[in-house]
Every structure is written in structure tokens, then in C-alpha cells.
Amino acid sequence: MRSRESIAIFSPSSRPDPEKLKLAVRILTNIGFDVILSPFVLDERDLSEVSDNRRIEDIRWAFFNSPAKVLMPSRGGYGIIRILERIRAFDFAKVEKVLFGFSDFTFLLNYLSGYRNLRVFHGPMAVQNFSIEEVVNINYFLDAVFGRPYVIKWEGDGYGADTDATIFGGNLTCFVNLINTPYLPDLKGAVILLEEINEEPYRVDRMLYYLKNLGIFNLVYGVLIGFSDIGYDVYFNFFKKLRVPFSLGVPAGHGKVNIPIPIGRPVKVSFRNCKINVT
After folding, report:
1. Distance between CA atoms of 92 and 132, rounded to whole angstroms?
2. Counting beta carbons within 10 angstroms of the beta carbon of residue 225, is it exposed (0 to 12), middle (13 to 18) or buried (19 or more)?
3. pLDDT for res 1
4. C-alpha–C-alpha distance, residues 126 and 186, integer Å
5. Closest CA to 75 of 14, 131, 130, 7
6. pLDDT digit string (tens) for 193-219?
7. Which of the four pLDDT bands, split at 50, 70 and 90, describes residue 245?
8. Among 47, 121, 161, 234, which one is most buried in terms of CB atoms within 10 A?
9. Could you report how far apart the first and last alpha carbons of the chain are, in Å?
10. What order do you get walking across the sheet with 158-159 strand by strand?
11. Segment 44-52 long-range contacts (CB within 8 Å, at least 24 positions apart)
């Protein structure tokens, strides 16, 4: 069944590879989407003010000028933290959109999750997840787009009681840089999702201890650990000592499997049974 929905692709972080973007557009079109590309999607992205202005214009275009209901970054990379202060001027309460992304997009996911008119998902992006011939998670993605319930299951270690809670978080490095800023929602009683790539074990360990020393793990109910290219020993050894509810191996983040997880919306989480019920 064709989705008969439009999707806008924009580049608020780094510039995508043109050929990979072209392939992602073809695959999304074959799934059934009418793909609309931002006029700035392939413009250069660096550390200049010109690039920051392009990032701002891309976000403005996606949310306020594009007719698409579904928004998806072309890729992650770097850059959103540079423009967070400027996007606070945008009136996101005026639009209704379904938003996907991860990695550098963690900054926007958490900030925008406070708008009830937006449905925000930690989930796939164009180049990372739709520029390969064998795309996985299409059904989960379509369920998220159209607001249908679904269940996410995985295999991994877990500890703690089930809970109905709101999920925040995303990429570990980006999440750490959101702490004590006005762009991170209240974490009290929440479940946080963390995933990471291309970081040494000692750096991951240091970031976890930084969050611990800030009292974050005393504030939240539990923790979900998504993709980790260093395995899960660092996380397991850390969280088993804290006795904080946790579950490892959630299919979310930089791996091949990147199932949409609602950000800022209540879900049922089973830590020991490795399951999330999205309603």
C-alpha cells in the first residue's frame, strides 16, 4: 500500500553525499512518499556564519514553508548546537509535523518534544537509513508516520520493573551537551535513551560518570541503551552498580536497525523483557 504522504528532507547539520541522497529519494519514493528536497539541502556546511544561516533557513523552510507533513534530516554530523539559541525565535506551535532524526538531531528532538502539536521520533534519517538497497524497519517507520501502535522488541540484558514513562535523550555526546540548558525538558521520572558511535570506551565511561555526578540517574526512572559500536560491557558494568532500571541493545541509533522511538510522549517500557509498547 502506498503511503500517499509527502516528506521533506533538509540539512540542519552537515552536508549529505549527493549520490546517497539521490538513492534515499528513490527508495522513499518507491515506498510511496512524495519527496520534497530543501533548496539548501546540498549547500556546504562548515563552521562559518554563512553555513549557520543556511541551517537556519533549512529549518525555517522545513517547518514553515514546506507543505510536507513529515520532516526528515538528510543526515547527522555537526552544527545544530551552533544555532539552538536562534531557533527559539521560531513559533513551532503554529505547525503540525511528524519529525524523525537522531545523532546531531538529538538537540532538536528534545527541544521540540515540548510542543504538543509535533510528533517527535528518535528514528531514521535519509542518507543513514534509506540510502541502502535493503532498507529495514519500513513497517515501523510507516506505523510512526501514520500514528499506528507498534511494539519494539530486542534481545539484551535488562533490570528493573516495567513503567509508563516519557522518553528523552538520543546520542550520548549530544545529550551530555544539553544538560543544564533551556533546550532539555524536565527529566524527573523519565526514561532516557542513549546511543553512541566512534567513541572510545573511556570517553563513554567518562560521560556516564559526568551524568551520574550531576545527579541525572537519581532523577530519571531508568535508561535505555541503543546502538553501541564498543559493545555493552561499559554500560552493563556502570548501571548494574547503580541499580537503576536499564535495558541494553535497543534497536535505535547508528546501527543498521533504527526503529522510531517517540520522544516526549508516554510509552510503556519493559526493561527486563526488552520491549517498548508505542500507542
Report:
1. 32
2. buried
3. 42
4. 30
5. 14
6. 999 999 999 999 999 999 999 999 999
7. very high
8. 121
9. 22
10. 150-153, 275-278, 266-270, 163-171, 191-196, 222-228, 246-248, 158-159
11. 44/15, 45/11, 45/13, 45/14, 45/15, 45/77, 45/79, 47/82, 51/79, 52/79, 52/82, 52/83, 52/86
Of 243, 168, 253, 256, the residue nearest 212 (C-alpha): 243
Residue 2 has pLDDT above 80, yes or no: no
Question: How far is the C-alpha of 221 from the C-alpha of 202, rounded, in Å?
Answer: 25
Residues 174, 165: Cα–Cα separation, whole Å? 22
Beta-bridge partners for 150: 278
Q: Which three cell numbers stand for residue 41?
A: 539541502
Return the HEC string of the chain.
CCCCEEEEEECCCCCCCHHHHHHHHHHHHHHCEEEEECCCCCCCCCCCHHHHHHHHHHHHHHHHHCCCCEEEECCCCCCHHHCHHHHCCCCHHHCCEEEEECHHHHHHHHHHCCCCCEEEEECCCHHHHHCCCCCCCHHHHHHHHHCCCEEEECCCCEECCCEEEEEEEEEHHHHHCCCCCCCCCCCCCCEEEEEECCCCHHHHHHHHHHHHHCCHHHHCCEEEEEEECCCCHHHHHHHHHHCCCEEECCCCCCCCCCCCEECCCEEEEECCCCEEEEC
* Distance, CA of 159 to CA of 226 (rounded, Å): 15
Q: And the C-alpha cell for 111? A: 527541544
The per-residue pLDDT for range 92-127, each reduced to its tens digit, is 999 999 999 999 999 999 999 999 999 999 999 999
